[in-house]
Protein backbone atom coordinates (compact mmCIF):
# COMPACT_ATOMS: atom_id res chain seq x y z
CA UNK A 1 0.00 0.00 0.00
CA UNK A 2 2.89 2.36 0.69
CA UNK A 3 4.08 1.87 -2.91
CA UNK A 4 0.61 2.56 -4.31
CA UNK A 5 0.18 5.70 -2.24
CA UNK A 6 3.75 6.95 -2.65
CA UNK A 7 3.94 10.50 -3.98
CA UNK A 8 6.57 11.66 -6.41
CA UNK A 9 7.80 14.26 -3.92
CA UNK A 10 9.04 11.69 -1.38
CA UNK A 11 10.92 9.41 -3.75
CA UNK A 12 11.96 6.15 -2.09
CA UNK A 13 11.84 7.55 1.45
CA UNK A 14 8.13 6.97 2.05
CA UNK A 15 7.99 3.29 0.97
CA UNK A 16 11.36 2.59 2.61
CA UNK A 17 10.25 3.94 5.98
CA UNK A 18 6.78 2.40 5.75
CA UNK A 19 8.12 -1.05 4.88
CA UNK A 20 11.00 -1.01 7.34
CA UNK A 21 9.05 0.35 10.29
CA UNK A 22 6.07 -1.94 9.65
CA UNK A 23 8.29 -5.00 9.36
CA UNK A 24 10.17 -4.16 12.56
CA UNK A 25 6.87 -3.66 14.37
CA UNK A 26 5.23 -6.90 13.24
CA UNK A 27 8.39 -8.93 13.92
CA UNK A 28 8.58 -7.43 17.43
CA UNK A 29 4.89 -8.20 17.94
CA UNK A 30 4.61 -11.64 16.32
CA UNK A 31 8.18 -12.91 16.48
CA UNK A 32 7.59 -14.98 19.59
CA UNK A 33 4.60 -16.67 17.97
CA UNK A 34 5.79 -17.56 14.47
CA UNK A 35 9.40 -16.46 14.41
CA UNK A 36 8.37 -13.39 12.43
CA UNK A 37 8.61 -15.15 9.05
CA UNK A 38 7.13 -13.08 6.22
CA UNK A 39 9.62 -13.79 3.44
CA UNK A 40 10.26 -17.16 1.75
CA UNK A 41 13.89 -16.25 0.97
CA UNK A 42 14.58 -15.36 4.60
CA UNK A 43 12.81 -18.51 5.80
CA UNK A 44 15.08 -20.54 3.51
CA UNK A 45 18.13 -18.80 4.97
CA UNK A 46 16.83 -19.45 8.50
CA UNK A 47 16.37 -23.13 7.69
CA UNK A 48 19.87 -23.37 6.23
CA UNK A 49 21.45 -21.98 9.42
CA UNK A 50 19.31 -24.11 11.73
CA UNK A 51 16.74 -21.54 12.77
CA UNK A 52 13.79 -23.32 11.16
CA UNK A 53 13.02 -27.00 10.73
CA UNK A 54 12.85 -28.27 7.16
CA UNK A 55 9.37 -29.69 7.85
CA UNK A 56 8.13 -26.16 8.55
CA UNK A 57 9.65 -24.56 5.45
CA UNK A 58 6.93 -25.50 2.96
CA UNK A 59 4.00 -24.60 5.26
CA UNK A 60 5.70 -21.26 5.92
CA UNK A 61 6.20 -20.67 2.19
CA UNK A 62 2.55 -21.44 1.46
CA UNK A 63 1.42 -19.14 4.27
CA UNK A 64 3.75 -16.37 3.09
CA UNK A 65 2.49 -16.58 -0.49
CA UNK A 66 -1.10 -16.53 0.76
CA UNK A 67 -0.23 -13.53 2.93
CA UNK A 68 1.25 -11.73 -0.07
CA UNK A 69 -1.89 -12.45 -2.05
CA UNK A 70 -4.21 -11.28 0.75
CA UNK A 71 -2.13 -8.14 1.30
CA UNK A 72 -2.21 -7.26 -2.40
CA UNK A 73 -5.97 -7.87 -2.58
CA UNK A 74 -6.54 -5.65 0.45
CA UNK A 75 -4.29 -2.95 -1.00
CA UNK A 76 -6.28 -3.03 -4.22
CA UNK A 77 -9.58 -2.98 -2.29
CA UNK A 78 -8.74 0.17 -0.32
CA UNK A 79 -6.94 2.07 -3.10
CA UNK A 80 -8.49 4.15 -5.82
CA UNK A 81 -8.36 2.01 -8.94
CA UNK A 82 -6.28 4.46 -10.97
CA UNK A 83 -3.61 4.57 -8.23
CA UNK A 84 -3.43 0.78 -8.09
CA UNK A 85 -3.02 0.41 -11.84
CA UNK A 86 -0.53 3.29 -12.01
CA UNK A 87 1.63 1.31 -9.59
CA UNK A 88 1.34 -1.71 -11.94
CA UNK A 89 0.22 -3.92 -9.10
CA UNK A 90 2.56 -2.30 -6.57
CA UNK A 91 5.36 -4.78 -6.97
CA UNK A 92 7.82 -4.03 -9.71
CA UNK A 93 7.70 -1.17 -12.14
CA UNK A 94 11.39 -0.45 -12.05
CA UNK A 95 12.55 -3.06 -14.57
CA UNK A 96 11.06 -2.09 -17.92
CA UNK A 97 13.70 -3.28 -20.40
CA UNK A 98 15.77 -6.41 -20.81
CA UNK A 99 18.96 -4.33 -20.42
CA UNK A 100 18.00 -3.73 -16.78
CA UNK A 101 17.56 -7.41 -15.89
CA UNK A 102 21.15 -8.28 -14.93
CA UNK A 103 21.49 -5.26 -12.65
CA UNK A 104 18.12 -5.99 -11.05
CA UNK A 105 18.99 -9.65 -10.37
CA UNK A 106 22.35 -8.70 -8.85
CA UNK A 107 20.70 -5.96 -6.77
CA UNK A 108 18.07 -8.39 -5.47
CA UNK A 109 20.81 -10.88 -4.54
CA UNK A 110 22.78 -8.23 -2.63
CA UNK A 111 19.75 -6.65 -0.95
CA UNK A 112 18.29 -10.01 0.10
CA UNK A 113 21.68 -11.11 1.40
CA UNK A 114 21.85 -8.06 3.67
CA UNK A 115 18.35 -8.77 4.94
CA UNK A 116 18.97 -12.50 5.47
CA UNK A 117 22.31 -11.80 7.16
CA UNK A 118 20.62 -9.37 9.54
CA UNK A 119 17.94 -11.95 10.38
CA UNK A 120 20.40 -14.80 10.83
CA UNK A 121 22.87 -12.83 12.94
CA UNK A 122 20.40 -10.70 14.88
CA UNK A 123 17.53 -13.09 15.51
CA UNK A 124 18.85 -16.65 15.12
CA UNK A 125 22.55 -16.89 16.03
CA UNK A 126 22.74 -17.35 19.80
CA UNK A 127 26.07 -15.51 20.07
CA UNK A 128 24.80 -12.35 18.36
CA UNK A 129 21.09 -12.52 19.20
CA UNK A 130 19.82 -9.20 20.48
CA UNK A 131 16.61 -7.57 21.70
CA UNK A 132 16.77 -4.97 18.93
CA UNK A 133 16.78 -7.62 16.18
CA UNK A 134 13.24 -6.82 14.94
CA UNK A 135 14.11 -3.20 14.44
CA UNK A 136 17.51 -4.01 12.91
CA UNK A 137 15.68 -6.22 10.43
CA UNK A 138 13.26 -3.40 9.66
CA UNK A 139 16.18 -0.97 9.29
CA UNK A 140 17.89 -3.36 6.86
CA UNK A 141 14.74 -3.30 4.70
CA UNK A 142 14.70 0.50 4.88
CA UNK A 143 18.37 0.69 3.86
CA UNK A 144 17.82 -1.86 1.08
CA UNK A 145 14.92 0.09 -0.41
CA UNK A 146 16.80 3.38 -0.22
CA UNK A 147 19.91 1.82 -1.78
CA UNK A 148 18.40 -0.47 -4.39
CA UNK A 149 14.87 0.73 -5.00
CA UNK A 150 15.85 2.57 -8.18
CA UNK A 151 17.72 -0.46 -9.55
CA UNK A 152 15.29 -3.33 -8.94
CA UNK A 153 12.42 -2.02 -6.84
CA UNK A 154 14.08 -3.65 -3.81
CA UNK A 155 11.51 -6.38 -3.40
CA UNK A 156 13.73 -8.91 -1.54
CA UNK A 157 10.66 -11.08 -0.99
CA UNK A 158 9.07 -13.51 -3.46
CA UNK A 159 5.77 -13.38 -1.53
CA UNK A 160 5.69 -9.59 -1.81
CA UNK A 161 6.19 -9.90 -5.57
CA UNK A 162 3.77 -12.80 -6.01
CA UNK A 163 0.69 -11.24 -4.40
CA UNK A 164 0.62 -8.05 -6.44
CA UNK A 165 1.57 -9.92 -9.63
CA UNK A 166 -1.37 -12.27 -9.12
CA UNK A 167 -3.87 -9.54 -8.23
CA UNK A 168 -2.79 -7.29 -11.11
CA UNK A 169 -2.01 -10.15 -13.51
CA UNK A 170 1.31 -8.39 -14.16
CA UNK A 171 4.10 -10.92 -14.73
CA UNK A 172 6.69 -8.91 -16.68
CA UNK A 173 10.13 -9.77 -15.27
CA UNK A 174 8.46 -11.40 -12.26
CA UNK A 175 11.04 -14.20 -12.21
CA UNK A 176 13.68 -11.66 -11.09
CA UNK A 177 11.96 -11.46 -7.70
CA UNK A 178 12.27 -15.22 -7.21
CA UNK A 179 15.74 -15.78 -8.64
CA UNK A 180 17.38 -12.77 -6.97
CA UNK A 181 16.21 -13.47 -3.42
Would you mind describing this structure in some detail?
This protein is mostly helical. It has one domain (13-180): Glycerol uptake facilitator protein. It contains 8 helices and no strands. It has helices at 13-34, 40-48, 54-78, 81-86, 101-124, 133-152, 158-168, 176-179. Helix 2 packs antiparallel against helix 3, helix 3 (54-78) packs across helix 7 and helix 5 packs antiparallel against helix 6. The longest helix is centred in the middle third of the chain and has 25 residues, at 54-78. It starts with 12 loop residues before the first helix and ends with a helix. The relative contact order is 0.21. The model has no long low-confidence stretch (mean pLDDT 90).
SSE blueprint:
Layout: H1 13-34, H2 40-48, H3 54-78, H4 81-86, H5 101-124, H6 133-152, H7 158-168, H8 176-179
Helix pairs in contact: 1-6, 2-3, 2-5, 3-7, 5-6
Question: Which descriptors apply to this entry?
Answer:
67% helix, 181 residues, globular, mainly alpha, Glycerol uptake facilitator protein, 8 helices, single chain
Question: Judging by the overall fold, what is the CATH architecture?
Answer: Up-down Bundle
What is the ordering of alpha helices and beta strands? Answer: HHHHHHHH
Main beta-sheet strand count, sense and barrel state: none
* Helical fraction: 55-70%
Q: Give unreliable regions as ranges.
A: none
Query: What is the count of DSSP helices, taking H or I runs of 4+ residues?
Result: 8
GO molecular function, one term: water channel activity
Subcellular location: Cell membrane
GO cellular component, one term: plasma membrane
Protein name: Aquaporin 8
